[in-house]
User: What shape does this take?
Amino acid sequence: MAKRKADPRAYSSVVFDGVKQTPSRAMLRAVGFDDRDFRRTQVGIASTWSTLTPCNMHIDKLADAAVRGVQGAGGRPTVFGTITVSDGISMGTPGMRYSLVSREVIADSIETVVGAQGFDGLVAIGGCDKNMPGCMMAIARLNRPAVFVYGGTIRPGAERRDIVSVFEAVGAHARGAITDRQLRDVERTAIPGPGSCGGMYTANTMASAIEALGMSLANSSAQEAVSRTKRQDAEHAGKAVVELVRKGIKPSDILTREAFENAIVVTIALAGSTNAVLHLLAIAHAAGIKLELDDFTRIGAKVPVLADLRPSGKYSMSELIRIGGIQPLMKTLLGAGLLHGDCLTVTGKTLAQNLKRVKPYPAGQSIVRPLADPIKPESHLVVLYGNLAPEGAVAKISGKEGLAFEGRARVFDGEEATLQAILDGTVVAGDVLIVRYEGPRGGPGMREMLSPTAAIMGKGLGDKVALITDGRFSGGSHGFVVGHVSPEAAAGGPLALVRDGDRIGIDATQRALTLYVSDAELARRRKAWTPPAPYATQGVLAKYAALVSSASLGAVTDRGLKLSGQ
Assistant: This one.
């Protein structure tokens, strides 16, 4: 793309220049600025570092590398922090309610700092499930030159274990398949160090989707957290954002409708997490791009699942990295006409230009299948509708668990009771577990059901039990699972009316989610239904519940806001 005429200090000059801004400069001299710095392109580096979780414990080093990149390109970097929370640590507890909420807090905080401080460009570094889309939502809202850096994947633990191995070991222990000592051995060896969960779970899914969007550098999604290439990626991102500022290339030039279609295609081909649906809808909303649930169905009808990656497959992200990451896959998809090659990226080049010299996967590898021999000929992300989900629900159907399930409902108002019933043997083959009041508003926060789904797998019921919820699933969940049911139970959705013993059908071929109860009976139940009391009446959870939209719209908190007088 030809360079544009751009003011490299379009935002910072307002903060730094002139007599009236003398106090601003005086404050900044105290943190190390000198006269030359005030004339440089100002780049904010949003770091999600903390020692709270392995996903983010190394990101301070990546922020340092980004600083070097910005300085080497003639810019002036400033590092600032934002929060993160750990899904893996809070999973199955009340604390998990804060997970999706943190996405909004992160987006708001990055937007707040960049907007207040007048940065001309932004590098955002994320390494966990919610801080990645949170970073991207802020980038889209701000629309200033920016590059996203993924913190990188964790290396496999002993015997190729990862965090999902631990959750599933809990279920195996409950059925007596492993001893206390074996369970402790899994606990102690599954997580060897820094990085995000090692399968095609939510973090690696979102990293891949963001690379396909064009907002990170080539291979940013396919690098181990503890690696020289990851540190180089962060440094190159620092250089790249200064160049984007000089060229005047903004996120709105990159985050087009076609770019989001590319992200959906890559997510499907990689057998990515259902959370990608929720997060891509939210990022698109922030970017002002119309994206709907049905777009996933339309695109999914022509895109096959090619990658044999965990949780439903065999291989880890580290193993995909060793054969070349996602770039060869993207080149294959481009050659098949499944990607829009003319989309601009943060390199300043188009996607097709970036992929021109990419080599194919080595002969004999079995991690990524050829187009002619897919794992599944169409998407594993199946959007279902029916009288149980009038606004839609999202299922993750790999095909290994079958394409249809019918059974009798076993209803739980919340996750904790569900998990206990699985572990103590109450849940049996043929059950359709209903886990409700876990939606965006009702949870609040739309908790992930990794603990119940992993326990189901550990108990050997993965193809014998289905689970339906208005909550979400971790990218590590697999089996016959349906989430994001909309409208949610707390909003009076049909899920609130289900009773134990009701017959329920899930049909991935017909894309139907059906409660076999008459309309008249449902009307009688609705008259007797009363909404539950709110979980929180003050603080961030209460604010979130008051503002959040339906999961079918991305569960964002700024949709439909109106100023007084409008």
Summary: The mean pLDDT is 95. DSSP finds 21 helices and twelve strands in the chain. The domain at 12-17+37-155+193-355 is CATH 3.40.50.2300 (Rossmann fold).
